[in-house]
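#data-curation
PF: Archiving a pair of folding outputs for the training set. Convention for this channel: one message per protein, sequence first, structure tokens after, nothing in between. First:
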Amino acid sequence: MKFGKVDHPERIDFTIPPDHPDTSVVLSKSSKNKPLDLYVGCAKWNRQDLKNFYPRGTKDELEYYATQFNSIELNATFYRIFPVETYEKWYDKTPEGFKFFPKIVNNVSHLRRLNDHVYSIMDEYLSVTALLKEKLGTIFLQLHNNFGPKNWDRVVRFVDYWPKEFPLAIEFRHTDWYNDAVVSQELYNLLEENNIANILVDTAGRRDLMHMRLTNDEAFVRYVGANHPTDYDRLEDWASRLKSWRAQGLSQIHFFVHQNMELASPLLSAHLIEKLNKDLGVALRIPKTLVQPKTLF
């Protein structure tokens, strides 16, 4: 994930901004007694990317990955709609309690840009995605960097179309969604009214995407490390913020770790899970890694 990559991450202020004032209002509407829905994972299970993770002799990467993590941010579905048999295999290879968080295919988000021709594609996409059954987590839509507020009507039509039985999160990347208070408030209202999560992206070169505005009781976080020692400190800060949100009513944490060079993603994920276990009083499995944390940078 090269989005937001910079040449000198040591020059970036990675401090997590204060919460948007309305985040606490949104969280206050959620029951503080709800069980915590906590999923942490990587963006892919490919052996070539996740070096220092798979033991020698591993025959099936997904099958092994799912013994270590409880979820995957399924980026593969961004590039094409897979056949029925593929979804059935993914379902069968993963244990009870595992969840997939698939990205909507780029024909919808990037090529056709939510125009009137995307809905037949979405019907096809959802019909096979639904084969993941109870292992299907939140589906997410990542819009193009240049998809700005002039496309507001397309966003509204898409939200109106969306079948409410599928949880949805959306990532808005164009800066104008956040630069104009009137535009951003209209967007936040739309997401709140339709129970759609507003994705937070933590990446070095786009700190404006750390808007810290939740629109329901789900924190869907896409974290992009910089292959730099600060990656670990940033994750500890995230654990603290998530603990604060949990105390205010947050009931869903869906956190996915990316790297510009993916080899450290399992290490970073393990570090975060260990911290969340301590801060939130949970017992999520800590993935095994073939090298020790903090030794790659």
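PF: Second:
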Amino acid sequence: MMVMSKLPSVNTSIFSVMSAMASKYEAINLAQGFPNFESDCKLNELVTKAMRDKHNQYAPMPGLLSLREKISEKIEKEHRVSYNPKTEITITAGATQAIFTAIAATINKGDEVIIFTPAYDCYEPTITLFGGKTIAYQLEAPYYKPNWGEVKNLLTQKTKMLIINTPHNPSGTLFTKEDMLALQEIVVAHNLLVISDEVYEHIIFDGHIHQSAARFSALKNRTFITASFGKTFHVTGWKLGYCVAPEVLMQEFRKVHQYNVFCVNHPMQVAISNYLEDSDKYMALPKFYENKRDTFLSLMKDSKFAIIPSQGTYFQLLGFAEITDESDIAFAERLTKNYGLATIPTSVFNNKQKDFKQLRVCFAKTDETLREAAAILQSI
């Protein structure tokens, strides 16, 4: 039976490829972005309690109201803006589903969507799936800062949306207040929509402030913000996140959401709703991961890799141009096979696979794992 693929150029993701190689060669896995330490036992106990309390049937389609109320309170506390928990917040099966749903609800055949590469690899296939066209704006190493004049030059009459990601994966850089104001000016002037991928919203270092799209009123009014409890609470396997947007956009989002997943894991929503009563559970994250970053950078201080400290996320880029002239893909494969360390080659996230000779590593690992990984990297 012949099937005409709607995504003919999509292959297995680099995360799956490198993790499979890590398993095959019994390598330390700094490739895929997940912690290798346990989540808070209190959170796990709250899930068990929710199951025992019989919260095991369908949750409400937009998510448990108590959880949506906690999210609304959290955003108001952090950014001094309000979202109506009944009409402007939806609980999703992770941030990837939220991004998929926002694109599905708004992008039509022929619409153009600007993304900033290096970009998370779910953006472009989803745009393509719904008939849109991806327009890539390449951020340049080593600082990955946008030139908003160049972004403006990419706009056409077909431009419908921009997708941003801050804190930025894989570079670890942040959009500044000035960046967000420039973005706001563009989208208002050209009547555009925005998806702001903010899954690392609580993982920011060195006293920097997360410049959420919610902080800018005109931008807030035309933006889907997506976030992840999995990233925040070290439970990536739970695939639980949320989306906030003005009511007019959320109405369209929920039309797709209800026929895509309808609702998401009920006992975990109950547990996280209770867990969010203590704001220290997420407010302590910046210092926790900053310590992880600093531990890793201290271990790497005498290596031959070029390193600019990550400003956010739990990823760090390692420049290897002074070590080898191999492509980043070839070097990443050799590191895995010959040295027992799996990383991510960053060219796979770039427009036309532009190779800046950088690898991405995840430092959301135990100190023991970081020491073992750094010892390997130091030996190169």
